[in-house]
Amino acid sequence: MEAAPGGSPRPAAQAPASQPEPRAPEPRAPEPRAPEPRSDRRAGRLSFCTKVCYGIGGVPNQVASSATAFYLQLFLLDVAQIPAAQVSLVLLGGKVSGAAADPVAGFLISRSRRTGSGRLMPWVLGCMPFIALAYFFLWYLPPFTNLRGLWYMAFYCLFQAVSTFFQVPYTALTMLLTPSPRERDSATAYRMTLEMAGTLLGAAAHGLIVAGAHGPHRCEDAEFPGPGAVPPNATCLYSIAAAVVAVTYPVCSGFLCLGVKERPDPSAPASSRGMSFLAGLGLTVRHPPYLKLVICFLFISAAVQVEQSYLVLFCTHASELHDHVQSLVLTILVSAVLSTPLWEWFLQRFGKRVSAFGITVMVPFVILLAAVPTAPVAYVVAFVSGVSIAVSLLLPWSMLPDVVDDFQLQHQHGPGIETIFYSSYVFFTKLSGAGALGISTLSLEFAGYKAGACQQAEQVVVTLKVLIGAVPTCMILTGLCILMVGPGPKVPSQDAARQLSLRRRTSYSLAAS
């Protein structure tokens, strides 16, 4: 009995002995943690070499995409001489196959296991040889004529699908380079700048090589060439241009493999299986900032694709600018390359939402080009269009990591959620581009476009002017209105960013151990 009272004073004595007050200094642990954000920044800082090698890895896909955007439609209509209705099906089928491959790629990549070289890097390297072969045969002119539509449909669908399996893990790799949002934005800017520089060199090489197939002498030799009247050197020139672009895939992939190290997945420890792709897709689609971002850039990206696809056709058939086609394409790309670093500074200084207004700079100029298709106006429009295209390409890839961070702070999830975000975004943008290009190319068929003809009907000229001016304008203004209505995607606050950074560092250490 006395032991009980004797024991009671002991707990009373243990109350001060337990000394919650002395443990109170343990909250002073945040004082040593105060320098940890600096160490986090140092630990999450990417070297210049890493950023450059990461940017080089995305060059081939953009070079190939730029060449197809500017020249594939002209090649199919005037060299392969496929009817415009079949060209519409080829473009639509290719874009739809690329869009359909996005959720498949997201599912397979999100369920794949981490290897010695990472979880995303093996997909990038494994797809590389297949893309190069598909791209080369996309520009090859087969000896038969009846089934050329099916030939180009097959290889364009294959190219778009395999390209998706390359692009989805490559872009999602941004989230696994560093836990620092600022460093990810910087890596994105390096990627966009180098991709545009590669696009410039690739489009310049492709355009200069195939220029002989579309010279004015073609119409001097034959008053009205019909089907089968293909310039004798066109096949060789397009095959050489395709080979030059295809070689960039193994070269640039080698730089990516040697210079970039993929970190462990920050979403969860490596032992976690993660959520299913369909469950993750349902969560991402219901996330309001992501939904607004996707809908906004559905219209803007479709406008850019229409502008690129019909510029060459407009200069060739709706104006007297066929001698300036290569120079105008180079002007657009040079302007985009030079303005990308300036837009990155503008994003950091004034915010991403304000920077979106830079896309509207091209609107009055494309309308002016449709009304006054002269060489001086065309070069001004090309320069301004490059500035607008640069921000339209940089902005969504800079805002998407912020949306992923916001989602990760609100939801518990398994590994691979960033892949679902990126793959679904590419899926929706490709789907919108497929619809826009398919419908617009079909409008040429209704207007009476004649494959291989040196001079098109007046209805075709009017249709090309509408496609180069009014259509991109309406799409851009619609997308910006959607972006500006209501709250947009926000960058996480400093406390939230620190919390997310600490969570990722813990996950990195757990996965590394």
UniProtKB/TrEMBL annotation:
Localization in the cell: Membrane
**Major place of residence:** membrane
Q: Which Pfam families match?
A: MFS_2
Q: Which domain of life is it from?
A: Eukaryota
Q: Where is this region: Disordered?
A: 1-42
Q: Which UniProt keywords apply?
A: Membrane, Transmembrane, Transmembrane helix
InterPro entries (UniProt xref): MFS_2, MFS_trans_sf
Membrane topology annotation: Multi-pass membrane protein
Point to the regions of Basic and acidic residues compositional bias.
23-42
Q: Compositional bias of type Low complexity: which residue ranges?
A: 1-21
User: Where does the sequence pass through the membrane?
Assistant: 120-141, 153-177, 198-217, 237-258, 290-313, 325-347, 354-372, 378-400, 420-442, 462-485
Question: What family, per the record?
Answer: Belongs to the major facilitator superfamily.
Return the PANTHER family for the record. Answer: MAJOR FACILITATOR SUPERFAMILY DOMAIN-CONTAINING PROTEIN, SPHINGOSINE-1-PHOSPHATE TRANSPORTER MFSD2B
Q: What name does UniProt use for this protein?
A: Major facilitator superfamily domain-containing protein 2B
UniProt source species: Pipistrellus nathusii
